[in-house]
Amino acid sequence: MSSQEAYELAVKGLLGPDGKSVPILTGLRCIHFQPPNFTLEVQCLNETQKYLRKVVHEMGLELRSTAVCKGVRRTRDGPFTLQDALTRHHWTAADVMQAIQQYRSKKRSKKGSRTLTDKAVLQTSEETLTVSQENEADKEPAIAEVQCS
């Protein structure tokens, strides 16, 4: 397959990377503890519910006990929070379009405010450093609450 053919398939969404990236935990915090129950806030990249349940199980094993995941609730996925979520009765074309427009306007306003700080960085630093900082800011991890006992 030529690179042009591969590009055209990728643009259509028919071609992508083989397999999924390895999950990475970037943060773990106990936000509620009332023995034997506890709730964790987990910040991670490329995770699944199955992976989070396995992490809780392994925590129990490390503590020479048992830990069972009672529920997983995603509170943020990249830039999207629970406030951005649409309930089932809002899954209409008009509501989805409105949510997309709100997201784009919020993203534009954030980008505008970030551009001012980036210009200040440019005066004291190399341009490549600023670009890499912008790219890293776009890679926000997902946050999930995991209820355990």
From TrEMBL:
Origin superkingdom: Eukaryota
InterPro entries in the record: PsdUridine_synth_cat_dom_sf, Trub2
Entries under Gene3D superfamilies matching the protein: Pseudouridine synthase
Residue ranges of the region described as Disordered: 127-149
PANTHER family named in the record: PSEUDOURIDINE SYNTHASE-RELATED, PSEUDOURIDYLATE SYNTHASE TRUB2, MITOCHONDRIAL
Transmembrane segments: none
Stated name of the protein: tRNA pseudouridine synthase 2
